[in-house]
Amino acid sequence: MSDIFSRQQWLLALACMPALLLILLFGFVTDHLAPCLIMLGGAFTVGFGAFKKFSDYPLAPMLIVAVGMVASAWLGSLVGNHLYWLLPVAAMLAALCAWMAEVEDALWWIVLQWSITLFVAAAYPGGIEAANHRALLIMLGAGVQLAAFTCFQKAVYRAQWTLRHHGLKANWQRVRGDFHARFRLGRYGVYAASVVVLCLVTVHLTALHYGYWAPMTALIILKVSPRDTLTKGRQRMLGTLGGCLAATLVVHLNAGHRVLALISVITAFAAYGLQNARYAVFTIFVTATAVLTIALGGNPEWKAALERSVATLMGGGLAIMVLAFETWVAGHLLPARQAAQLAKD
Fold first, then answer.
1. Residue-wise pLDDT tens digits, 211-268
2. Dihedral angle computed from the Cα positions of residues 142, 37, 288 and 15, in that order, rounded to the nearest 10 degrees
3. Closest to 67 measured CA to CA, from 171, 144, 138
4. What's the whole-model pTM score?
């Protein structure tokens, strides 16, 4: 509980807010809110990197996730045109994400964000021009977040925030050592890739516009332990439903776009600050922020809320089903096969 009220946690959350406010303000002033909302998504995600520890260089997680998100946005816009290209690319990223969980939590989070960016971009496919446009907007949003965050941090933590570039190389050597010692190509990556492929095929068949929340949910909740997967899946589903309901109620107050923008900034701030709270509580604010920004773009929030809820249930359900099947196979069929082999010998 003390982590929730940590002064450091909320100061970091506060440091992430200027970028979001600047992007929204620019969108309203120039009357180009739609592209600014894509920038906002990039800035919002990159901001979470401030809470990750990867090296002595404080911006390392933010920089690495930003570069990968730009590449994923560009690639996702292109492969989203063809399911037979999207599936292998998504499967490889999902397997990599699962394997990174065995190496370093920060690396898992980074690859997870790359994967999510790919899923979202694939839902808005286009040609080279569209891919370049989306990648550029993500890059601009990430750049604004990095610049604004650095300025704020230097003002608040002037002594603490000396950027130590030499530390990055030393830390990378340690991570490489951990990688070779702990990296295991096993069933975890296989069923992560399988669940993501199943989700994408199901979304394609059902034509859910916001169906990218299905593979996203599956990848987030999948853990090696079935109990951990079930626990996180339940909290993710409850949090998503709660966030969708709250955002829909706010939109139906008809308070205007500027009020919606202000509330979305508040929910984003809460999402940053409540990362150490119960996962369901954290998910409520992340979901509410996403649905409110969709409403800002002029899309029906009730449709977004409904489809995101359905996609979340779909992704969570498929993840739990596949993991349960894999656990049953490992617990029943494989021992039986081993016993039969021993009997022959």
1. 888 898 888 888 767 777 778 878 888 888 888 888 888 877 776 788 888 999 999 9
2. 40
3. 138
4. 0.85
